[in-house]
Design a protein that fits this description.
With 148 residues, the protein is mainly β. It is built from 1 helix and 12 strands. The strands form 3 sheets. Strands 1-3-8-7-6 form a 5-stranded antiparallel β-sheet, with no helix packed on it. A hairpin with a 3-residue loop joins β6 and β7. The longest helix has 6 residues.
Length: 148
């Protein structure tokens, strides 16, 4: 009996080593923060945030140095909480043309590890609603926000 391809892929080392939300929404002119959780053992590895629908072609916007120090790029910052195994990316002064697929990832020898996140930026004045989502077995809540 053969395992379905999905189960086989999920059983490979490194799969699901990093996870983020499927999608996030933000308001034009505001900021969007994304948290990606990773498994223990990846604490001291460099982390990155890139933009683009295709993994092989995405453009890295910011990356850590393997430490917990926050690194700032152009309207984007990344921090790594190594003791709790998550990285946080904040995109500031977002615009509607920032809507795209992004990836949070871990640099390592061989292929990097990554998780796709769809970021959607809504026009100013849009009401964003609260959503609950599971995060590694814990409940998380995104905030309600709106702009005038």
């Amino acid at each position: 009996m053969q395992l379905p391809l999905v189960l086989l892929l999920l059983s490979l080392p490194g799969c699901l080593s990093i996870q983020g939300p499927e999608s996030v929404r933000g308001l034009e002119g505001g900021s969007v923060t994304v948290r990606c959780d990773y498994k223990p053992r990846w604490e001291t590895y460099g982390k990155w945030w890139c933009r683009g629908a295709y993994w092989e072609l995405c453009r890295t916007l910011v990356r850590t140095t393997g430490s917990q120090l926050e690194v700032k790029g152009d309207r984007v910052s990344i921090g790594d909480n190594q003791s709790h195994h998550f990285l946080t990316v904040t995109m500031e002064k977002v615009r509607q043309d920032d809507t795209d697929t992004y990836w949070c990832g871990i640099s390592k020898s061989g292929p990097d590890l990554g998780a796709p996140i769809r970021v959607t930026i809504e026009p100013e004045g849009t009401l964003l609603t609260t959503a609950c989502y599971p995060t590694n077995g814990r409940a998380g809540v995104s905030s309600v926000s709106y702009s005038r």
